Amino acid sequence: MDILDIGELAARSGLPASTLRYYDEIGLITSIGRRGLRRQFGPEAFWQLGLIALGKKAGFSLAEIATMFAANGASSLPRAALHARAGEIDRQIHELTVLRDMLRHVAECSAPTHLACPRFRKLLRIAGRHQKGHG
Fold first, then answer.
1. CA–CA separation, 66 and 133 (whole Å)
2. CB-based contact 15:6 (threshold 8 Å)
3. Other Cβ atoms within 10 Å of 103 Cβ, number
């Protein structure tokens, strides 16, 4: 692939040029020069943008994603951080599965009101405890 200017990279990646400029300014991607006022990018920008998208989807901050690039722009994925994040995703999956199952129960519960449902009341008690721990 040839060198792309920022407009071409934006069109091919689906990201706005403003996002690409921001990523360039904070060092997530690196322009290799300019043609007039337009930044130029090499083919590695595509895989870097893919890594950024994957990192964001996994819940990493842009600052954390920045640490996944070596000084030369190559990826340097920190295995310990990836394991930790995978563990956090597992915890979120478990919590969301429990919540989904509880919502389905409450939606189908034969109790005359939601507050009359013992499982719903238990959910409210648990949610209250979790809120105190995170507030």
1. 31
2. no
3. 12
